[in-house]
Amino acid sequence: VLVKARSRRNFFVLIVLTAFLLANTLFHLAATGRVAFSPLDAGHFFVFTVIALVCVIGGRVIPSFTANALRGIRQFRSQTLDVAALAVTVLALLLALLLALVRAPAAPTAAACVAAAALQAVRLAGWNPWATRGTPILWILHLSYAWIPIGLVLLALGAVGVLPPSAGLHALTVGAIGGLIIGMITRTALGHTGRPLKAGRAEVTAYLLVQAAVVLRLAPMLAPALPYLPWTIAAASAWSLAFTVYFAKYAPMLVAPRIDGRPG
């Protein structure tokens, strides 16, 4: 389909799908003892692939949504910066994966993660996230994307033994992926049910709960004196409540006809 449509800018999706296939295959091989690494490492490979996908798609839609909603906003966007940020991020994530698999030297992994974090932070700053502070349906996307450079810094600290290696993974999964999921499923549901793209109290509550979940999950890792289990339970509760709030508001909307009478 992509070839017939000559959609060259989306050919990378084929690489992503192949990576998902490889990660899934490696998981089953590891689970059955046919390869010499943990199924968890295959799961990390899958997560890192999702982050790469988020970097590409997020880099397209987040600044675009922001510019469309906030007319006249000043933004800095550079294709060179986008390519560099993606390339260095993919390199950093591959090195982080290799570090876990073959116990490679930590210094190159940490350096690549810090460089990727810097590039991602500059990229995000160029989208002018501060201008979205009064628009929740936009700031949730910027805030969630910010967990990518944060997660990369935590991966760097994990590589050199300052923090548990899983700290960066939680920032990337709960913070970046989870935050962007709640931000996008509210946005798309509003649009496809014929409603204005405006977040109300329920949406803001869900957004804040997901952000609270990642902070609570990371807290005992960043401050080992904190009791691990209570904070983890609190994080899981905040996460679950966020999507419960979403379900309570959006389930009736999604099973009903569009309010504007249009199909879809």
Summarize the structure.
The chain is mainly alpha-helical and 264 residues long. Helix content is 74%, strand content 0%.
SS summary, helix count: 8
The share of residues in extended strands comes to under 5%
Largest sheet: none
Name the shape in a single word.
globular
State the share of residues found in helices, binned by percent. over 70%
Number of strands: 0
Task: Please explain how this structure is put together.
The longest helix has 31 residues, at 39-69. 74% of the residues lie in helices and 0% in strands. The protein starts with 11 loop residues before the first helix and ends in a 10-residue tail after the last helix. It is an all-alpha fold and 264 residues long. The model has no long low-confidence stretch (mean pLDDT 95). Helix 2 packs across helix 6 (166-192) and helix 6 (166-192) packs parallel to helix 8 (228-254). The chain has 8 helices and no strands.
